[in-house]
């Protein structure tokens, strides 16, 4: 009986630990390292990385001028 109780406790703890925390409006997951297909954009509450698919991350784009350099806007 004690063995069954021990197995049940360990199983419940593993389920609790392995649950993924979501971030970025539930489009990302809090992980210590991101997969190759994901990018790190912000930190989660527990200071892990919020790994998000790149198509969901807003990107500020800059245009190139005729010489191939980035244009500066009013600086």
TrEMBL record:
CC terms in the record's Gene Ontology section: extracellular region
Domain of life: Eukaryota
Keyword Ion transport appears in the UniProt entry: no
Location of this chain's protein in the cell: Secreted
Pfam family, one: Defensin_beta_2
Signal peptide extent: 1-20
Role according to the record: Has antibacterial activity.
Name the record gives this protein: Beta-defensin
Naturally occurring in which organism (per UniProt): Suricata suricatta (Meerkat)
């Amino acid at each position: 009986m004690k063995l069954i109780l021990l197995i049940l406790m360990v199983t419940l703890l593993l389920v609790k630990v392995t649950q993924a925390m979501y971030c970025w409006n539930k489009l990302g997951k809090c992980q210590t390292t991101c997969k190759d297909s994901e990018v790190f954009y912000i930190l989660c509450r527990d200071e892990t990385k919020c790994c998000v698919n790149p198509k969901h991350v807003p990107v500020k784009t800059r245009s190139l001028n005729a010489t191939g350099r980035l244009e500066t806007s009013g600086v």
